[in-house]
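Suppose you are handed only two things: the residues of a chain and a line of SMILES describing flavin mononucleotide. What would the bound structure be? This form records exactly that question and the answer produced for it, so the two can be stored side by side and reused later without any lookup.

QUESTION INPUTS
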Amino acid sequence: MAVCDSRAIRIEGLSYAENIVDLQPDSFTNEQFNNFLASRRSVRNFKNQAIPDEFIRQIIESVRYAPYGSDSDEIELTVVNNRAKIEEALPYISTFYSNVKGMLQSPFMRFMMKRKLAAEQFNTLDIHLMPRLLMNHYDISKGQDNITRNAPALLIFHAPKSAPEHSEDALIFITYAALAAHALGLGATINGLVGPAINKDAKVREIFQVPTHHEAIISLIIGYPKIHFKQGIKHLAKKTNWL
Ligand SMILES: Cc1cc2nc3c(=O)[nH]c(=O)nc-3n(C[C@H](O)[C@H](O)[C@H](O)COP(=O)(O)O)c2cc1C
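ANSWER OUTPUT
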């Protein structure tokens, strides 16, 4: 259908009106593309300003162009364009991470977690998260929201636990969403904290209305950025092996 000028080819499940778009000739150079990528940075300071739903809809439209591993419509997106709702969940998420800290500090619980979790998951908690937990970084009683950064909106991707390739797909979708938010002049940061709290804490799950048979995979905080980056930054060079 995407190569048929006369629109004679039809594929079940796809329609020209809903799924096929006219393409403009490539309108940017590689330099402009890299400039766009370089100017996207994680934004963790937001103006106290709500985002119109229409912007979120545009982000969702952009995600429709993302590649996917499994041709499944099982991945769902929950849009929480509602700061009050996010704040309702924050105390529970904060307590959840305080409990994670306690578990990592207990030799017995640590042993059990190491046995139960995949090495990647355990190391994410132990190596990446623990230094922040020890500083009480996610303790909202300190008066600071280092979990969702006072963002007015939160997008949560979730899927049935058994859905094929749902983690990979959701990570690609969230990347597209982050880039789309940036293209709209919004700021965003991928958030790995909200998902585990939804998965392990029934109250957080209930507040965000994620079905019990679903796994929350990844989320994105979005808002109007308070600051604008003047320079881009190249992260660590990826270790590359040319054969
Ligand atoms: C899977 C994943 C989870 C992340 N989780 C968080 C998070 O919970 N909180 C946060 O502030 N940033 C989070 N980030 C953002 C990274 O910290 C950020 O992308 C990284 O520091 C690079 O900075 P940049 O996005 O400005 O280029 C996450 C990024 C990814 C890819």
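WHAT STANDS OUT: The pocket of flavin mononucleotide is lined by residues 41-42, 44, 189-193 (CB under 6 Å). The first strand starts at residue 76 and ends at 80.
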